[in-house]
Amino acid sequence: MSRLIFVWLAAIFVLLCLGWSGCSSSGESGLDEEKESNYLAGRSRKSAQNYTGAIEAFEQALEANPRSAAAHLELGLIYYQNVNTHWARAIYHFEKYLELRPKANNADLIRQNIGYCKLALAKEVPYTPNNDLIRKEVERMGRENTDLRRQVEQLKAQLSLRPVSAANGAAAFKSLNGSTLKPLTPVTSNPALRYAQPGERQPEPPPADETAQPTAASKTHVVKSGDTPYAIARIYGVKLASLLSANPGLDPRRLRPGQTVVIPWR
Hints:
Blueprint: H1 2-35, H2 37-47, H3 51-64, H4 69-81, H5 87-100, H6 107-123, H7 131-161, H8 166-177, E1 218-222, H9 229-236, H10 240-246, E2 260-264
Antiparallel strand pairs: 1-2
Helix pairs in contact: 2-3, 3-4, 4-5, 5-6, 7-8
């Protein structure tokens, strides 16, 4: 009987020792993580607001000890508090910290941080419910653009083979799009300036008046029988060249009585 009691007491003692050693090793493990040289360097750089250097040091601490919950926590806090564009990285390190220390005193706070990071990350994703519709529409427009370019190239090839009149050009367009284009007929308020229609004779312009029109800076002379340009120039004391220049429609060999000649100023 006494031997049985002794065995029970020994078993209880062993279990107590194992439990104590386990708790002690866990606590010592956490302390060892925070004493690691890379971890200490990361804390120092973080205090100096050198976040890039701190991230590098904490990542080196994880390379030395992949189960360093303290390093994961520090990285998560840096990405959460100081580098706001890396929400996904903050979520990753926070979740690794909870995986390694599920019963940590700050576990609830870390879970709240994870929720906030997920919300912020969701806001950065553009909402495009009609991506498929937009893609199909772009593809359709691309095909139409290709068809139009091919039609234009065909038209250029046809036009380069022969001279094309307005009517033939309309026929060429008809072969491309199935519609007939009528030649444009210019419209003008002056009947003398409009284009002649097919089969219509273009009206001749009225003859130019051979009699020069006087200007505000000149006077006139009415030709009498026997007058010549040279004589008229001498009468008014002007050069013959100036007289002829002022009367471009004047034929010096065919002066007619009653004809008006412009006399330029001297």
